Amino acid sequence: MTGLAERLRAGETLISGWTQLPEPLLTELVARQGFDAVTMDMQHGLHDIQSVMRSIGGVAYAGKPAVVRVAVGDMAMASRALDFGAEAVIAPMINSVDDARALVAATKYPPMGDRSWGPIRALTVLGVPDLATQLRDANRDTVVFAMIETARAIAVVDEILAIEGIDGVFMGPSDLSVTLSGGKEIAATADWLDAPIRTVANRAAAAGKIAGAFAVNAVRARYFIDRGYRFVTLGSDQAYVAEGAKAMLAAARAG
Questions:
Q1: What is the rounded CA–CA span in Å between residue 5 and residue 107?
Q2: Known active-site residue 47
């Protein structure tokens, strides 16, 4: 199976599922749909260490790569997610070069970073044949996304992208709308976000790196893809259940 990093670097555009509920069977079910990957949210979602560890196995069993968004500043969990077998991590609120360097330190082995050695579960989940192969290939085969979701981050996005070990940036439109409006609006789909959204995609492309984004719905996913974002997460597990139930009920009650 071709890994997430290889597919993204080959220029593919991938759509990931997104889970917030800490139930590994639900995450596995999402993985068995048509998504290219599944992302587990530990920042605003309810996932914890146990649910992430068990969910990663279910996602891999379904033949998909697992991605974990950690909580703000939780570099220890970023490292552990990779030890559990995640193929990518998304770190929120990377607002400075120092933040980005700390992320690389936690997620890349020396000499690029300072990631501690211990990928015991990852060896099994990813089918790595031996320790030497893991050490040789891990920095290349794991994708590290720095979330760009504030005016401060956009101001230094080129510097963040220039750091070796930052494989891409991930647009957080909700927080971006809050920060750019001075806390007056939460407007993830506002037209006035278009300019910074285009800027981030363009700067990532210029740096030869990956632009990712969170899309609240299919229309917004298409919007991001059309602007050059190549790793787009779509909706959430709660929306999948709610919208699926609504559609089934509407069909059953149609006269």
A1: 14
A2: no
SS3 call for 84: helix
How far CA 54 is from CA of 23, 182, 238, 243, in Å, comes to 9, 39, 19, 26
* CATH number for the domain running over 4-253: 3.20.20.60
Tell me the pTM.
0.97
Task: Point out which residues pair with 88 in neighbouring strands.
Answer: 67, 143
- Please give the single-letter amino acid code of residue 187: A
Beta bridge partners of 18: 39
For 86-108, give one letter per residue: b (16+ CB within 10 A) or e: bbbbbbbbbbeeebbbbbbbbbb
Q: Residue 1 pLDDT > 90, yes or no?
A: no
User: What does DSSP assign to residue 115?
Assistant: P
SS3 content of the chain, % helix, strand, coil (to 5): 50, 15, 35
| Active-site pick, 33, 44, 116, 247 | 44
Residue-wise pLDDT tens digits, 137-170: 999 999 999 999 999 999 999 999 999 999 999 9
Q: What is the pLDDT of residues 53-78, one digit of tens each?
A: 999 999 999 999 999 999 999 999 99
- Whether the per-residue pLDDT at 176 is higher than 70: the answer is yes
Given a cut of 90, whether residue 255 has pLDDT beyond it is no
Burial of 238 (0-12, 13-18, 19+ CB in 10 A): middle
User: What dihedral angle (degrees, nearest 10) is formed by the CA atoms of 236, 237, 242, 247?
Assistant: 90
